[in-house]
Amino acid sequence: METIVKPIFLFADSQLLFWHTEEGLLLDRVRQSLSVELAEGPLKAAYLGASNGDVHEFFELFVAAMEGIGITECRMIPAMPSPEDEAYLSQANVILLAGGDPWRGWQVFKENGLIERLIERYYAGAVLIGISAGAMQLGLKGWSEHPQVPHKTFDTLKIVPYVIDAHQEPNWYLLRQVVHEMGEGVRGLGIPMGGGVIFHPDWSIEPVRHSLIEFMVADSQLQQTLLLPPPPASGLEAGA
Fold it and tell me: Cα dihedral angle (34, 203, 111, 89), rounded to 10 degrees?
């Protein structure tokens, strides 16, 4: 029996929203994963900008990206959602968690009951997309990127079984520190600028565009592995 859960798309930044190869847009894979839902009616996409303070310009980028794959029903779910916003989110087929400050966004999610709603939507078959802070929030742990906020980790959605960090290459200092503190059995993924990863329903991961760095603790030592993206099927990357 085919599982209802869909792949999760984790991006370091917004570049991959518009990235394409000769095979087409990367986001075409979002639409393809929703073929059953598409047959039932127009797809709906929701944007959660809590981590960046609901900056409208970033929502406009999201709308443009969705229009590129034929999704025209888009809605920003603000930090203080109305009943109409909540009803829309409960039906959304695509949900994007935007970048910004992970701690700031997480506090909004907690205050407004969005944590449970996001988990419910994932297991009901929605495609989740996390950009930067949003990617971190989909993983195991988060921390504030604001320089005036002391380094302190907090639990996140834990849908993706990795500690996620984005565009902090080459050293990945905080990711290294958090994985080391959590100990053996925990893995971390560093997603470089312009790169991404697809977390599949079978828990396999697929690097996108650029190589990832995976960290883990073994025999009390922090180890790292370079994870390479699959080669293009043919030709050169048109969006490189």
Answer: 0
Strand partners, 165: 190
Beta strands in the chain (DSSP E): 8-11, 20-21, 24-25, 44-48, 73-77, 94-97, 127-131, 141-142, 154-155, 163-166, 187-191, 196-199, 205-208, 212-218, 221-227
Helices (H), 68-155: 83-89, 102-111, 114-123, 133-137
| pLDDT for the residue numbered 170 | 87
Residues (pLDDT < 70) of the chain are 1-3, 145-151, 233-240
Q: What is each CA distance from 128 to 139, 146, 219, 223, in whole angstroms? A: 12, 25, 34, 29
Res 151: pLDDT: 64
* CA atoms of 30 and 202, how far apart (whole Å): 17
The Cα 36–Cα 94 span in angstroms is 14
What's the CA gap between 6 and 43, in Å, rounded?
15
pLDDT at 148: 57
The pTM assigned to this predicted structure is 0.93
Q: Which residues pair with 198 in a beta bridge?
A: 9, 206
Q: What angle do CA 124, 97, 88 make, to 5 degrees?
A: 50
Domain at 8-227: CATH architecture: 3-Layer(aba) Sandwich (3.40)
**pLDDT tens digit string along 205-220?**
999 999 999 999 998 8
Q: What are phi and psi of 227, to 5 degrees?
A: -110, 120
Q: 151: which 2 tokens?
A: 């380094």
Question: Structural domain boundaries of the chain?
Answer: 8-227
